[in-house]
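_Backbone structure tokens_
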Amino acid sequence: MEEKQINISINEGDSMFAHETTVTFNPTQFIFDFKSITPRMDMRSKEGHNLVVKHSVIIMDPYQAKGVVDLMKKVIDDYEKRFGKIEKPKQMQKAEKKNKEDAKKKTVSTAPSYLG
């Protein structure tokens, strides 16, 4: 039998830090939308700041999505055994507390946290 060579090309894609993640679904798939939000300032512009939003979307069937959840649970358990319990950062706790206080005073900003 003759041996045949198979050439494989792998596209690694771009790495990114996800500041925000949303997950939606329909009957046949789960859609994971990872967002990176980066402020940019052009000193020549008089219009102020710009936000650059980068999306990386992953779509999988429900069986695969459930496998990702099981894998993440295992990996997080292993992480916490090695490095300690993952807790919400103090800065985030402080911001959430302030937001609750502001909501009681009805002084919460109506500006969106994400544009896109």
Q: What stands out?
A: The first strand starts at residue 20 and ends at 26. The CA atoms of residues 30 and 60 lie 5 Å apart. The chain has a mean pLDDT of 86. The beta strands are 20-26, 29-41, 49-60.
